[in-house]
Structures are given as structure tokens and as C-alpha cells.
């Protein structure tokens, strides 16, 4: 089944110059991440060296080589957020989710990441979940916002973002 889905992606771009990044993006959207078998299939399908495909994937931060959680949580570590307590917010998030930054929760619902800056210094300390920003966070409030996403999925069978 995975081969059919990858072939479908490759067919759209076969013979198109500079197609590697769009193929990688679409393959990642399809599979959730880029497994080694997927990268090999892309290299073969586009008739380019595996080393080139791998080099592009590891160069750009938008590509993931391991499975990720359904929701991505980004905890800002910029100067304003740091001064306002982002380390405590991150620790509370790690404790609450039982996952360290850079990892996914066991149930695959949340991917926890740190970022250098979310560009929302006036909201420090800030957290972003998927495309939603949450400002002036505390250890208590971050627990509430993650529960909000979990609760929405249980009640509706979907996430708040409609996915």
C-alpha cells in the first residue's frame, strides 16, 4: 500500500526539474515522516542518488526521519521567554506529557519541541500548538492547553484544527 501511495506522488513529478523538495513534502504529508524505505523509493523514482535525497532531508528542518506526534508543541526558548520562565514551562510540559523535548508522547498525540523564537515576545513565555499561539504560559496553564487538545479529540473524534 505504501508503494502505491509513493508511486502516486512520484507520478505527478516524474520528469519535472527540481521536483525533489515537493516530492519530499508530499511524501511526508502522506506518511507523516520520511522512513528510509521512502527515501530509497524517492531516489529510485526520481533517478537521483540516495545520498542527494538524504542530504536534502537532513539539511532542511521541515523534514522528519522518525514518526512524530499528531500535534506539534513548540515551547519558545528566546530571551524574553527565558527571562519570563520558559524553562519552568518546558519542564512542566515534559512532566505532564511524559516526553522530553525533541520526542513524541507514547500515544503519538504530541510532539514536544523547543524553538529559538516564536516571534511573540510580547506574549512571553509563549507556546505554540500546531498553528495556535498561547501566551503568558505557566506550568499550570500548559497542562490545561494540552488537555484541551486531548479532550477535543475524545469528544469529537478529531482535533480542534479539524484534522
Commentary on this structure:
- Helices cover 49% and strands 12% of the residues.
- A hairpin with a 5-residue loop joins strand 2 and strand 3 (110-115).
- The two termini are 22 Å apart.
- The chain has 163 residues and is of the alpha+beta class.
- The protein folds into 2 domains: 2-59, no CATH class; 71-155, Glutaredoxin, CATH 3.40.30.10.
- It has a 5-stranded mixed beta sheet, covered by helices on one side.
- The chain is built from 7 helices and 5 strands, in the order ααααβααββββα.
Short description:
The protein is an alpha+beta fold and 163 residues long. Helix content is 49%, strand content 12%.
What is the secondary structure topology, with strand pairs?
Elements: H1 2-13, H2 20-31, H3 36-46, H4 50-59, E1 71-76, H5 79-83, H6 86-97, E2 103-104, E3 110-115, E4 127-129, E5 132-134, H7 139-156
Parallel strand pairs: 1-3
Antiparallel strand pairs: 1-4, 2-3, 4-5
Keywords:
163 residues, alpha+beta, Glutaredoxin, 2 domains, 5-stranded mixed beta sheet, 7 helices, 5 strands, disordered C terminus
Tell me, what's the shape?
elongated
Order of the strands making up the biggest sheet? 2-3-1-4-5
Q: Estimate the strand proportion.
A: 5-15%
Text of the CATH class of the largest domain: Alpha Beta
As a whole number of angstroms, the C-alpha radius of gyration is: 18 Å
Structural class: alpha+beta
What's the end-to-end separation, in Å? 22 Å
**Low-pLDDT residue intervals, each spanning 5 or more residues:** 158-163
DSSP helix fraction: 40-55%
By CATH, the topology of the largest domain is Glutaredoxin
Total number of helical segments?
A: 7
Whole-number count of domains: 2
